[in-house]
Amino acid sequence: MKHRTTKAVIPAAGLGTRFLPATKAMPKEMLPVVDKPAIQYVVEEAVNAGLTDVLMVTGRNKNALENHFDRVTELENTLEQKGDLSRLAKVNASTDLADMHYVRQGDPLGLGHAVLRARMHVGNEPFAVLLGDDIIDERDVLLSRMLEEQEKRDATVIALLEVDPDSIHLYGAAAIEATDDPDVVRVTGLVEKPSREDAPSNYAVIGRYVLKPEVFGILARTEPGKGGEIQLTDALQVMAASPEATGGVYGVVFRGRRYDTGDRLDYIKAIVQLAVDREDLGPQLRPWLRDFASHLD
């Protein structure tokens, strides 16, 4: 029996070591992208796609994540008394986004293990997984399309992005077959971070998944791989190889704007890209950027 997908799982237990010392006491997911923490963009994307039940898989020292999506009555009262209703609305927006839940990962055993920790909450229905390092521009459709394809095909659906073949070693690469839809492919296999020569294609897996609940049983049987971690890619490989039992795996090819906040340089680029398109910041930022760039060697 098919279920309408309402649940999103957001793994957020990583240490954020690439951003030390900024992440020594603050979760990397709370690093600001313009004026919102990165994690809020991800939750907003889930909500805009119709997912109202969000489970965040966290770790130690991640209390700031729960606090951000909770009420702050002292701040709210202060803003209300000052008549600062614009900022009050922004504060309340994060509180009222979704029905938020939290579970700790415990042992840092990889993305597959983090997804497995959601088993009791998700139950026997399809669900979305959104990784916080990837921010998808709200003007571009991805997750909604993936949810539609999952329901139509009764299969697991992953997001794919065509990348420069010289960069494929940074991603999981998908072996694919065409379907009757140019934006949808059937995934026949997955290779984690292959060399350019060994990559089955230049279609890279990015951080959006709509998974069938069968993935939990497969993850529970998956042995730790590289680095002693349970890899979600290994479970997806099993599902792709057994479409009769699992419905198989399909990929939605994304051709829109994606911002990578997991790398320091790309994080800076993401802030600039998003800021220049803002009505309140862009008109002043764009001419400053042009002038600044004109003086670079």
Automatic annotation (TrEMBL):
<keyword id="KW-0808">Transferase</keyword>
<protein>
    <recommendedName>
        <fullName>UTP--glucose-1-phosphate uridylyltransferase</fullName>
        <ecNumber>2.7.7.9</ecNumber>
    </recommendedName>
</protein>
<dbReference type="InterPro" id="IPR005771">
    <property type="entry name" value="GalU_uridylyltTrfase_bac/arc"/>
</dbReference>
<dbReference type="Pfam" id="PF00483">
    <property type="entry name" value="NTP_transferase"/>
</dbReference>
<keyword id="KW-0548">Nucleotidyltransferase</keyword>
<dbReference type="InterPro" id="IPR005835">
    <property type="entry name" value="NTP_transferase_dom"/>
</dbReference>
<comment type="similarity">
    <text>Belongs to the UDPGP type 2 family.</text>
</comment>
<dbReference type="GO" id="GO:0003983">
    <property type="term" value="F:UTP:glucose-1-phosphate uridylyltransferase activity"/>
</dbReference>
<feature type="domain" description="Nucleotidyl transferase">
    <location>
        <begin position="7"/>
        <end position="273"/>
    </location>
</feature>
<dbReference type="InterPro" id="IPR029044">
    <property type="entry name" value="Nucleotide-diphossugar_trans"/>
</dbReference>
